Structure to design on (121 residues):
């Protein structure tokens, strides 16, 4: 259990380091609960964008010059948005999400918090 928690902390540390290196990095999530989960892990709220807070055109325009870190859910809605952004030439960095989701056996960002709290009880 402790090894798993350490692995999670390494991934979050890697993510924080990535954000500190690239001034234009932004994490995209679908909603408030997703953002809350990532903030719990120590990520700065100002680097997390709730995509539902913008229209699609505003979102694309905002993301054009960004290093976009994808924390969209692994469901139909998340996949549709991912595909739509890729069609508009938005490059998504999904490795952090894939690593955390796989390690914690979840398919959505808000579940990261619940799973982590269970691990650290």
């Amino acid at each position: 259990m402790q090894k798993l928690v350490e692995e999670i902390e390494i991934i979050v540390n890697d993510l924080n380091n990535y954000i500190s290196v690239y001034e234009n990095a932004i994490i995209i999530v679908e909603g408030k609960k997703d953002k809350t989960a990532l903030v719990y892990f120590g990520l700065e709220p100002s680097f997390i964008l709730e995509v539902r807070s913008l229209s699609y055109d505003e979102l694309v325009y905002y993301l054009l010059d960004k290093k976009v870190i994808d924390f969209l859910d692994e469901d139909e809605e998340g996949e549709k948005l991912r595909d739509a952004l890729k069609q508009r030439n938005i490059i998504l960095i999904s490795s952090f999400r894939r690593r955390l989701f796989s390690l914690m056996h979840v398919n959505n960002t808000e579940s990261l918090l619940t799973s982590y709290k269970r691990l650290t009880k």
The domain at 2-119 is CATH 3.40.1360.10 (Dna Topoisomerase Vi A Subunit; Chain: A, domain 2). The longest strand covers residues 25-29. The two ends are 10 Å apart (CA to CA).
